[in-house]
Fold this sequence. Notes:
mainly beta
Amino acid sequence: MKSLVHTTILVITAILAISCVHDSFDTAMLDDTTPRLVVSGKTVQQYSNADGQLGYNASKSEFRVSNDTMSEYFVLTCSDAPASEGRKIKCDVCWTAPGGKQKRTGVNFRVEHIEGDTIWLWSSSESIGAVVKVLQ
């Protein structure tokens, strides 16, 4: 009986730990400067040198990542330029997914890190991370 109680407690603890994994920024994202969109811990879109396109519109604070045919993409449109670490901004994000186009509006992001032209953003409320590039 005692081992059943211990096993049950371990299982419940593991489930709770797994459910909280994506509530905070994963610093492992900083190891890669490849533009990408991560939702709930899974990369849903990522730039490819072979067939990818990057876009940036400074006046709209908009970042775009797509393949050559635009069949796979993500677009991040921010309320303000993500110009400094720690800054909080609202963004609209849309992307293609196997089940169709996905969209979130008014998502609160925090600028986690800026290195050169690369910016890492994280939304703890939506578990969405983005790596984008400012193009000159």
